[in-house]
C-alpha cells in the first residue's frame, strides 16, 4: 500500500497494524477506485464487505495523499437499520442504540443525500421520537424510505465522498496547500469499534505536542460512553493526564493510558512524525482507530521538524523538506504595533491572522491589476465567492461585510495566509460609486489606504506602524540547515531602510533591487518628485535635483549601513509618469497649491506630459537619456554615500542598475556618465571606491541583444514583470480585467504575472542568459520580478545557472527554503 495509491491514512493504518497496534478490520479503496466511483462506476461492493461479516457496522474516512489536503468528513455507523436496532439495543442499551441510529440518519441525510440540515434537527425530542421524525423527514424530503441495506448505504456514502472531493471549493482549498490539480482521494472502510455500552467504554483523541507551539505536551480528550465525533467537543470530556480540575483517563484507566503513551512514542520514532491517535475503549479494551499527523500551526510545523531532526529521528535534510515554503508566510506576519496610534474605522471577525496595509479595491480584477503594478491593495467585498480567489491571492488583505469564521473569505484567507477580517457588518459598500462607508459616515474611496488587522479584527484608516514578524530559534535553525544545502543566492527587493531591515532580519544575502522611485511614494516626499516632473526649465529642475540629492544620499547611506557590507543593487529611477501624477481633480488642486501655480497651468502641463501608453513611454532609461541630470544626481548621491560608508570603515561596492534598456547604446551612454561622476567623487573625496554596473533585462529586445549589452555590464537582472508585460503585449495595469476569463477558459494556465511563463518569457530568459554569458562568462545573472520568490521560478533559474533570485523581503525565508528543497 502506498500513499500515492491509497492515500496517507490508509498507508498509516497499515503501518499501525504492522507495529502491532490493535486496529479494527480495515479495507482501503485506491485513488483510482474512488475516481471511478465519482464517475458512477462502482467498486465491487461484495469484495469490500466480505471481511466484515454479516450485519457489520462501519465507518468511512478520507485518505488523501497528504493529510493536509483535507477531504470529506468521516461518516460513521453505516449499516445501522431497523433489523440491527434491537440487536444493538441488547448490547449497548435501547437509548444508546437509538441515538446511534439517529445520528446515522442525520449524517446520511445531510452529507450523502444532501438534504436540508434543518429538516433533521429535533432538539426537543428524545432519541426514539427523534429517530422516527428523522426517518419520516427523510422519506418526505428524499421521496423514498431511508435505505436499509448496508450495500446501498455504503455505496451511496462512497459515491458522495468521492464527489465531494471533486467540488470547486475542496479543490481550491487543497490547491492552496500545494496539492496538484489531479490529487487523488482514497477511502478507508473500517469496522466500527463500539464506544458505548458495558464496562469502561468511550472514545478519545491523544497527541503529544502542543499544536500551536510544537513543544512536547500530552493533549487531547476522552469521553466515556460516546461516539468518536463527540470526542471533539470539549463539554463533558475527561482530561487525559492527572489534573486537579477533574477526573482524567489516567485515573480511571491507568493501564490503557500507559498503552497510549507507549503507542505515541512508537508512532513518533517508527512513523517519524507527531501523530494524533484516535482511539476507542470498548468494555476496557483499547482499539486504535486511526492515526493522523497532528494538525499544527506553521510555528509548530517548524518546531517539530527541527526537534525530530535534533532527536535523530529524521535527517536534517528531511526536516528541511518537511516544511512547505508557503506555510512560512503565517510565521512572517506583521502585526500592528500595539503602541502605535490607531484610528479604528470598523471592527469585524478576526478571520486570518496578521496585519496588512493597502489601497482599497472593490473587485478581484482591480486587486489583480494592483498586484501587477506592484501596488499593495486591500480587497473589500460584501462577501467573497470562488470567483474572487485570484483577487484574494493578489491582495495583501481581505475585508468582507458578511460572513463568519467559516465563510468563504475566512477559509480561503487562512488557506492562502492572507490577513482577513470578515463580517464587518457596520460597513457599507457602494461598488458603483467606488467607496465604502464606516460608522459615523466616514467614507473611504477606492485607492485610499487602510489597514486590516486579521489578528484582532480591527480595520484601521491609513498605515499605522507595524511590528515586524519575529523568527524563533527553530525557524532560524531550519533555515540555517536550508542555507547549508542551497546552491542559488537569495536577495531581497527592498526600497526603503525599513524594507532593508526586514530583508536583513530574514537573512537575505543582499538587496537585489532597490526601486529608487519608490523612495518617493511616501506622502511627504512625493511632492518633491512632482516638482521635478513639473519643472518648466532646466534651472528649475536643477534646483529640485539639488534638494533631492541629499535625500537620496542619506537613503543610500542608510541602506549601506543596514546591510553591513552585503551587496546593495540600486536601480536608477524608473518612473512611469502616471504613477507619480495626481489622477483626479482634487489631487490636481493639491498639486497646484503645493507648486503655487494656477490650477489651469497644472492641468495644461499634465496634458503635455500625458502619454497614450505610459508603460511604453518616457520611463526608465529613456528619462535618463533625455534628461541626463536626473541620473547624474542619483549617481552622485550613490557615490557620495559610498565614500561616506568608506569613511565609516565600511568599504562598500555599490551595484547600479539601469532600467528598461532596449539598445546597447543606452548602456554605453549611461556608463560614460556614471564613470565620469564616479571619477569626480573619487577626486573630491579621495576614496578609491569601485562600483558594478548592470542592466535590467525587461524588454524582449534587451534579452535578445544581451550579448552586446554584456560588453558594458557586470550583471544582468531579469525584470520579469515588465518582460512578461512586453512579451505578451499584456498591460500590467489592465490584465486583471480579463485574466479570470482567460485562465478559466484555459487560454493561459495561470496569470503570467503570478506564475512565471516558463515557455515564452522563460525562453527569453534562457536566450538572454546564454548570450550574455557568451560575451562575458562571469556576468552575474539574476531575476528580480515578482516571480523571483516562487518555487517554479527558482527551479528555472537554478537550471539556467543564475547566481541569485531577488524577491520581496517577506518571501525571502520561503525562497531560501524552496531553493534548498530544490537541491535535495
Ligand atoms: C520588473 O519589471 O520585473 C521589475 C522588477 O521592475 P518594476 O516592477 O519596478 O517595473
Ligand atoms: Mg520593470
From TrEMBL:
InterPro entries in the cross-refs: PEP-util_enz_mobile_dom (IPR008279), PEP_util_C (IPR000121), PEP_util_CS (IPR023151), Phosphohistidine_dom_sf (IPR036637), Pyruvate_phosphate_dikinase (IPR010121), Pyrv/PenolPyrv_kinase-like_dom (IPR015813), Pyrv_kinase-like_dom_sf (IPR040442)
Cofactors (names): Mg(2+)
Query: According to its UniProt entry, what is the function of this protein?
Result: Catalyzes the reversible phosphorylation of pyruvate and phosphate.
EC class name: transferase
Question: Which organism is the protein's source?
Answer: Loktanella gaetbuli
Q: Which key words are in the record?
A: Kinase, Magnesium, Metal-binding, Pyruvate, Transferase
Q: Where is the signal peptide?
A: none
**Does rRNA processing count among this protein's keywords?**
no
Family annotation (PANTHER family): PHOSPHOENOLPYRUVATE DIKINASE-RELATED (PTHR22931), PYRUVATE, PHOSPHATE DIKINASE 1, CHLOROPLASTIC (PTHR22931:SF9)
Q: Belongs to which family?
A: Belongs to the PEP-utilizing enzyme family.
Q: Does the keyword DNA-binding apply?
A: no
Q: What is its EC number?
A: 2.7.9.1
UniProt-recorded name of the protein: Pyruvate, phosphate dikinase
Residues spanning the membrane:
none
Domain (PEP-utilising enzyme mobile): residue spans on this chain: 375-457
Residue ranges of domain PEP-utilising enzyme C-terminal in the record: 474-822
Amino acid at each position: 500500500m502506498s500513499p500515492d495509491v491509497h492515500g496517507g491514512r490508509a498507508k498509516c493504518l497499515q503501518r499501525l497494524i504492522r507495529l502491532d497496534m490493535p486496529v479494527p478490520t480495515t479495507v482501503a479503496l485506491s485513488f483510482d477506485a474512488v475516481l471511478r466511483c465519482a464517475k458512477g462506476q462502482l467498486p465491487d461492493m461484495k469484495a469490500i464487505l466480505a471481511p466484515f461479516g454479516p450485519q457489520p457496522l462501519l465507518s468511512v474516512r478520507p485518505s488523501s495523499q497528504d493529510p493536509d489536503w483535507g477531504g470529506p468528513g468521516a461518516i460513521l455507523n453505516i449499516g445501522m437499520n431497523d433489523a440491527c436496532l434491537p440487536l444493538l439495543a441488547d448490547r449497548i442499551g435501547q437509548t444508546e442504540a437509538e441515538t446511534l441510529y439517529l445520528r446515522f440518519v442525520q449524517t446520511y441525510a445531510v452529507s450523502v443525500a444532501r438534504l436540508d440540515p434543518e429538516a433533521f434537527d429535533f432538539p426537543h425530542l428524545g432519541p426514539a421520537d427523534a429517530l422516527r421524525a428523522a426517518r419520516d423527514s427523510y422519506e418526505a424530503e428524499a421521496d423514498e424510505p431511508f435505505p436499509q441495506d448496508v450495500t446501498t448505504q455504503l455505496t451511496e456514502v462512497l459515491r458522495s465522498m468521492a464527489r465531494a472531493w471533486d467540488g470547486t471549493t475542496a479543490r481550491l482549498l487543497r490547491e492552496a496547500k500545494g496539492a496538484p490539480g489531479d490529487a487523488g482521494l482514497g477511502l478507508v472502510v473500517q469496522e466500527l469499534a463500539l464506544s458505548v455500552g458495558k464496562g469502561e467504554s468511550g472514545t478519545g483523541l491523544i497527541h503529544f505536542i502542543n499544536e500551536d507551539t510544537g513543544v512536547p505536551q500530552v493533549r487531547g480528550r476522552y469521553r466515556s460512553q460516546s461516539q468518536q465525533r463527540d470526542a471533539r467537543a470539549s463539554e463533558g470530556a475527561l482530561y487525559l493526564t492527572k489534573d486537579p480540575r477533574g477526573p482524567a483517563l489516567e485515573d480511571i484507566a491507568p493501564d490503557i493510558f500507559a498503552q497510549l503513551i507507549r503507542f505515541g512514542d512508537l508512532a513518533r520514532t517508527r512513523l517519524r512524525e507527531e501523530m494524533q491517535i484516535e482511539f476507542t475503549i470498548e468494555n476496557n479494551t483499547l482499539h486504535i482507530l486511526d492515526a493522523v499527523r497532528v494538525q499544527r500551526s506553521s510555528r509548530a510545523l517548524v518546531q517539530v521538524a527541527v526537534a525530530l531532526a535534533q532527536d535523530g529521528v529524521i535527517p536534517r535534510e528531511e526536516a528541511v523538506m518537511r516544511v512547505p515554503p508557503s506555510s512560512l508566510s503565517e510565521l512572517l506576519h506583521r502585526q500592528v504595533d500595539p503602541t502605535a496610534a490607531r484610528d479604528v474605522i470598523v471592527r469585524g471577525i478576526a478571520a486570518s491572522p496578521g496585519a496588512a496595509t493597502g489601497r482599497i479595491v472593490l473587485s478581484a480584477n482591480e486587486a489583480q491589476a494592483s498586484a501587477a503594478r506592484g501596488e499593495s491593495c486591500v480587497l473589500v467585498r460584501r462577501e467573497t465567492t470562488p470567483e474572487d480567489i485570484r483577487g484574494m491571492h493578489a491582495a495583501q488583505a481581505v475585508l468582507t461585510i458578511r460572513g463568519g469564521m467559516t465563510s468563504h473569505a475566512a477559509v480561503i484567507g487562512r488557506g492562502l495566509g492572507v490577513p482577513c477580517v470578515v463580517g464587518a457588518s457596520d460597513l457599507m459598500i457602494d461598488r458603483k460609486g467606488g467607496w465604502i462607508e464606516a460608522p459615523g459616515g466616514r467614507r473611504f474611496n477606492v485607492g485610499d489606504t487602510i489597514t486590516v488587522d486579521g489578528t484582532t479584527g480591527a480595520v484601521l484608516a491609513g498605515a499605522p506602524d507595524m511590528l515586524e514578524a519575529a523568527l524563533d530559534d527553530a525557524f532560524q535553525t531550519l533555515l540555517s540547515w536550508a542555507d547549508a544545502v542551497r546552491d542559488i543566492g537569495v536577495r531581497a527587493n527592498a526600497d526603503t531602510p525599513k524594507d532593508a531591515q526586514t530583508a536583513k532580519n530574514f537573512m537575505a544575502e543582499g538587496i537585489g533591487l532597490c526601486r529608487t522611485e519608490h523612495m518617493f511614494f511616501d506622502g511627504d516626499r512625493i511632492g518633491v518628485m512632482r516638482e521635478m516632473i513639473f519643472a518648466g526649465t532646466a534651472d528649475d529642475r536643477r534646483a529640485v535635483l539639488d534638494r533631492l540629492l541629499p535625500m537620496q544620499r542619506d537613503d543610500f547611506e542608510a541602506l549601506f549601513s543596514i546591510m553591513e557590507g552585503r551587496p546593495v543593487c540600486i536601480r536608477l529611477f524608473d518612473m512611469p509618469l502616471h504613477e507619480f501624477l495626481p489622477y483626479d481633480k482634487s489631487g490636481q488642486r493639491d498639486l497646484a497649491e503645493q507648486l503655487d501655480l494656477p490650477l489651469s497651468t497644472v492641468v495644461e502641463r499634465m496634458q503635455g506630459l500625458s502619454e497614450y501608453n505610459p508603460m511604453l513611454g518616457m520611463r526608465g532609461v529613456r528619462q535618463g537619456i533625455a534628461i541626463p541630470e536626473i541620473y547624474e544626481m542619483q549617481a552622485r548621491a550613490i557615490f557620495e554615500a559610498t565614500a561616506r560608508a568608506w569613511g565609516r570603515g565600511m568599504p562598500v561596492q555599490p551595484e547600479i542598475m539601469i532600467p528598461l534598456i532596449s539598445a546597447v547604446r543606452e548602456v554605453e551612454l549611461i556608463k560614460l556618465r556614471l564613470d565620469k561622476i564616479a571619477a569626480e567623487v573619487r577626486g573630491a573625496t579621495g576614496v578609491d571606491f569601485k562600483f558594478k554596473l548592470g542592466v535590467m533585462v525587461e524588454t524582449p529586445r534587451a534579452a535578445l541583444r544581451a550579448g552586446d549589452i554584456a560588453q558594458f555590464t557586470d550583471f544582468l537582472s531579469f525584470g520579469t514583470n515588465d518582460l512578461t508585460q512586453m512579451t505578451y503585449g499584456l498591460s500590467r495595469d489592465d490584465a486583471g480585467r480579463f485574466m479570470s476569463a482567460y485562465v478559466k477558459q484555459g487560454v493561459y494556465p495561470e496569470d503570467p504575472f503570478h506564475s512565471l511563463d516558463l515557455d515564452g518569457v522563460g525562453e527569453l530568459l534562457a536566450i538572454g542568459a546564454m548570450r550574455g554569458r557568451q560575451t562575458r562568462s562571469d556576468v552575474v545573472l539574476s531575476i528580480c520580478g515578482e516571480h523571483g520568490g516562487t518555487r517554479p521560478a527558482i527551479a528555472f533559474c537554478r537550471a539556467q545557472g543564475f547566481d541569485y533570485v531577488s524577491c520581496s523581503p517577506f518571501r525571502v525565508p520561503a525562497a531560501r527554503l524552496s531553493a534548498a528543497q530544490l537541491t535535495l
